[in-house]
Write a structure and sequence with these properties.
Strand content: under 5%
Radius of gyration: 45 Å
Strand order of the largest sheet: 1-2
Number of strands: 2
Number of helices: 3
Order of helices and strands: EEHHH
């Protein structure tokens, strides 16, 4: 396929290809050998320059549209929204101190309620922990020693 000369290309279009009339090129030779050296690069340079101009114009138009949108939002009361802003806010040191004091007060109130609930006898609260007397501990220890003695006696008998 052959490319049209530079003068026949239009803005925003890739170089147009002409239908092959006769395949005369080989696989080792470039099909662009009919052009003088540098013409193809000049076409690409011009196309690149036009694309950059178009990009800059589009960028400028986008900025103007963003300004218009933010103006309408401010009239509407919606305010401007920054898409990179993720809900974080700047809080002064004094405000942070006040918030910390308020949170400590809330936790103190919760702790106070839980302590009063545990001291008060209610049906839903857990029963108090039981303590074993010294005499009861001695009985349990004696019974355990008797079980171990019995086990050792059985093992001696089997061996």
């Amino acid at each position: 396929m052959r490319l049209l000369p530079e003068s026949e290309t239009t803005y925003h279009s890739a170089p147009k290809l002409l239908p092959p009339t006769q395949v005369t090129h080989s696989y080792t030779m470039s099909p662009h050998q009919n052009y003088p050296r540098g013409v193809l690069m000049q076409n690409l340079g011009n196309a690149l320059q036009e694309l950059r101009k178009d990009r800059d114009a589009t960028h400028l138009r986008l900025e103007k549209l963003n300004q218009i949108i933010s103006g309408i939002e401010s009239l509407n009361g919606a305010g401007t929204r920054n898409p990179n802003h993720h809900g974080s806010r700047i809080v002064s040191a004094a405000s942070r101190r006040k918030m910390a004091l308020a949170q400590r007060a809330r936790w103190a109130g919760i702790r106070k309620q839980s302590q009063s609930a545990s001291t008060g006898k209610t049906a839903s609260s857990a029963p108090p922990k039981r303590k074993i007397s010294a005499q009861g501990r001695k009985r349990i220890a004696a019974a355990q020693r008797a079980r171990w003695a019995k086990l050792r006696a059985q093992q001696k008998k089997a061996a």
